[in-house]
Amino acid sequence: MGHVNDSVVTEFVLLGLAHSLGMQFFLFLLFSLFYLGIILGNLFIVSTVIFDPHLHSPMYFLLANLSLIDLGLSSTTVPRMISDLFTDCKVISFHNCMIQMFFIHVMGGVEMALLIAMAYDRYTAICKPLHYLTIMNSKMCVFLVIAAWVIGVIHAVSQFVFVINLPFCGPNTVESFYCDFPRVIKLACMDTYRLEFVVTANSGFISMGTFFFLIVSYIFILLTVRQHSSNDLSKAFFTLSAHITVVVLFFAPCLFLYVWPFPAKSLDKFFAIVDFVVTPVLNPAIYTLRNKDMKVAMRRLSRQVVSSREIT
């Protein structure tokens, strides 16, 4: 597969989400509102963490990076999904399809690594509180974010180098509303059984392994805290419940999309929408509504903005 891609296919045709005009308008309004919520919610978290000195801690530094990744992951598909709603022939060029797949998996890989980093941060804060600031210092936080990006790029490249050189010479209809490795591989003019296994092993097994690792780590934290007191257990569970909810929301669709080989089109669309639209807009709500410090900081920031406007 080291040869230069000799594809004759220069563009792919994507399947639409709706065919009736009424449903198209409904989805346009729904996805536009959700995407606006994704942009405003995640950028508000980032700006609050940046401008509020009370939130200059490892947990909120990682949370701000997670919000940026949620925004980036959603932006790889949602804007095009909205613009394609009223397009009869939903065509994407070969190069744009490859770029979309690459950045989807970069962002997805970074998010997986960041969720692990956030689990490690919570373990250190809850189980080793006296050493928390020593372990989770600024250098460690920067290292964790850089490592997350390196992991995300490696995760994407390890699949991309195989797919970019596949020969595409026949069918060009992608059975989804966006390009992704499992769907595009099926269109290659060769036996792709081994490549399908590579994608399942890379995206599916890594997602499944990371998901179970995170759940086990949260259970371990709760069991460790339980040995101290029931009061500490309730506080720890309240703190971790937001993280557990985010992990389930992110990984559940991934497990169906990559571990369950080629689900039905309707299920494929549903789980993809959950991953790209629903989860990125729920994450800011989950972390703000269940976090007293974030709510106080947002009210403080809002008052500062209002007062600055009154002065001007």
Automatic annotation (TrEMBL):
Ranges that cross the membrane: 25-51, 58-78, 98-120, 141-164, 205-225, 237-258, 270-289
Membrane topology: Multi-pass membrane protein
GO cellular component, one term: plasma membrane
Record keywords: Cell membrane, Disulfide bond, G-protein coupled receptor, Membrane, Olfaction, Receptor, Sensory transduction, Transducer, Transmembrane, Transmembrane helix
Keyword Transmembrane: yes
Gene3D superfamilies reported in the protein's UniProt record: Rhodopsin 7-helix transmembrane proteins (1.20.1070.10)
GO molecular function, one term: G protein-coupled receptor activity
Main location: membrane
Signal sequence extent: none
Record's subcellular location: Cell membrane; Membrane
Domain annotation G-protein coupled receptors family 1 profile: ranges: 41-287
Family affiliation: Belongs to the G-protein coupled receptor 1 family.
Protein name: Olfactory receptor
Organism: Prolemur simus (Greater bamboo lemur)
Organism lineage string: Eukaryota, Metazoa, Chordata, Craniata, Vertebrata
